[in-house]
UniProtKB/TrEMBL annotation:
GO function terms (MF aspect): carbonyl reductase (NADPH) activity; L-xylulose reductase (NADPH) activity
Record's protein name: DER reductase
InterPro entries the UniProt entry points to: L-xylulose/Carbonyl_redctase, NAD(P)-bd_dom_sf, Sc_DH/Rdtase_CS, SDR_fam
Record organism: Dicrurus megarhynchus
Highest taxon of the lineage: Eukaryota
Subunit structure: Homotetramer.
Coiled coil: none
Pfam family, one: adh_short_C2
Family matches, as CDD domains: XR_like_SDR_c (cd05351)
Length: 246
């Protein structure tokens, strides 16, 4: 993707940057002039990312380890831009939800966003700079999906957390928004939704008749990080092809 917005001289942190949307956001920001730190728990993914885009700095961390995150992110900053993309999807029917799946989902999909955002927002405030935070949510925060009891719930909680963050951080000139995609054609998305019978049921509920491409989400994130959205905070940008209107 060719960058249409300039982030020259700005420092950005992207979590879940080893694969998929997070990786594409990190590369796009770097190519648009930002100094990017990419965070992932998978060292091999970070190594391949730096081969693809040598200017990117990396942090290999498990976001569930609060002490390690506090030390590493604190030392790597300060940042002006933050994309909380890291997430897990533990798909189980409601009656089969396990405590471990619930805890892992809460730790990553909700707790890690809160914690990383606290660290970065405190840095922004201490530096006296305006900042922008984008939390990657999902259409699943707005609509019940079978076998997604925990995922839907954590993404719904993330949407409300983002609104509270926007309210409390706004006086410090820090904007907070979410993007809420439908199924996205990452490598994993293509594998999981390659079966026409499985995908047809979802696509038939999307007025535009297709799933999102990675660039659809990346472009929305870049817009919300940029000064082009200077009066937008506390909002959820649906990247769902109209799924929620059907």
């Amino acid at each position: 993707m060719e960058p249409h917005l300039s982030f020259r001289g700005r420092r950005a942190l992207v979590t879940g940057a080893g694969k998929g949307i997070g990786r594409a956001v990190a590369v796009a920001l770097s190519r648009a002039g930002a100094r990017v730190t990419a965070l992932s728990r998978t060292a091999a993914d970070l190594e391949s990312l730096t081969r693809e885009c040598p200017g990117i700095e990396t942090l290999c961390l498990d976001l569930a380890d609060w002490e390690a995150v506090e030390a590493a992110v604190g030392a790597a900053g300060p940042f002006e831009l933050l994309v909380n993309n890291a997430a897990v999807a533990e798909l189980q029917s409601f009656l089969e939800v396990t405590r471990s799946a619930l805890q892992r989902s809460l730790d990553v999909n909700f707790g890690a966003v809160l914690h990383v955002s606290q660290i970065v927002a405190r840095q922004m405030i201490a530096q006296g700079v305006a900042g922008a935070i984008v939390n990657v949510s999902s259409q699943a925060s707005k609509r019940a999906l079978r076998d997604h009891a925990v995922y839907c719930s954590t993404k719904s909680a993330l949407d409300m957390l983002s609104k509270v963050m926007a309210m409390e951080l706004g006086p410090h000139k820090i904007r907070v928004n979410t993007v809420n995609p439908t199924v996205v054609m990452t490598d994993m998305g293509r594998i999981n939704w390659s079966d026409p019978q499985k995908s047809a049921a979802m696509i038939n509920r999307i007025p535009l008749g297709k799933f999102a491409e990675v660039d659809d989400v990346v472009n929305s994130i870049l817009f919300l990080l940029s000064d082009k959205s200077a009066m937008t905070t506390g909002s959820s940008l649906m990247v769902d092809g109209g799924f929620l209107v059907s």
